[in-house]
Write a structure and sequence with these properties.
single chain; 181 residues; mainly alpha; 10 helices; 65% helix; 6% strand; globular
Length: 181
């Protein structure tokens, strides 16, 4: 469980856009809008879908975690409730993370072919502020079947494994993506 707690604390920090110690709807909307601007998708159907995916993510998080009903999620609320939901079954991951991750995949799939190619992935890494030096290795890890492109299933499976496998093994795609948590 300590590894999952570290992963969830890392996720919490990423979602707490304004670093005030709480996740609020505005944090998730700002994160989504920033990605939409970077991908030049602010008013497009894809950009609107990304924002809607993040709002769906917010609704799931609030329902699951906001135990004191104050409209914001503390780190303690997030770690306890999301950790319990992930321990439940596959539905915990699907309810909490799938909407936001699917929307992020759609933004990265700039040519709308249903896959992320290596050029799209490198652009995503750059626009998301990740090290470009990691891009080739990360792409190879995400491309589970070795066909030179990442499908939405490979993308979601990598992140699902990250949250449901109690390991820091950097050969797991999402663990390598996030680095040591």
């Amino acid at each position: 469980m300590p590894e999952l707690v570290r992963k969830l604390e890392h996720s919490f920090a990423a979602f707490d856009e304004d670093n005030d110690g709480y996740i609020q709807l505005t944090d998730l909307e700002e994160r989504s809008k920033r990605f939409c601007v970077r991908f030049n998708e602010t008013d497009s159907p894809k950009g609107i879908a990304a924002l809607d995916g993040m709002r769906e993510h917010w609704r799931a998080l609030v329902e699951l975690t906001d135990t004191d009903n104050d409209g914001q999620i503390s780190k303690a609320e997030f770690v306890a409730a999301v950790g319990a939901a992930l321990a439940e079954s596959d539905s915990g991951f699907d309810r909490v993370f799938r909407p936001a991750l699917a929307a992020g995949f759609a933004l990265a799939d700039t040519n709308d072919d249903g896959h992320i190619g290596v050029e799209e992935f490198v652009a995503f890494m750059y626009l998301a502020g990740f090290s470009l030096a990691k891009a080739p290795r990360l792409f190879a890890l995400l491309d589970a079947n070795g066909d030179g492109k990442v499908s939405v299933d490979e993308w979601l499976t990598a992140f699902k494994t990250h949250y449901t496998e109690a390991t820091a093994d950097l050969d797991l795609p999402a663990n390598a993506f996030f680095g040591s948590t």
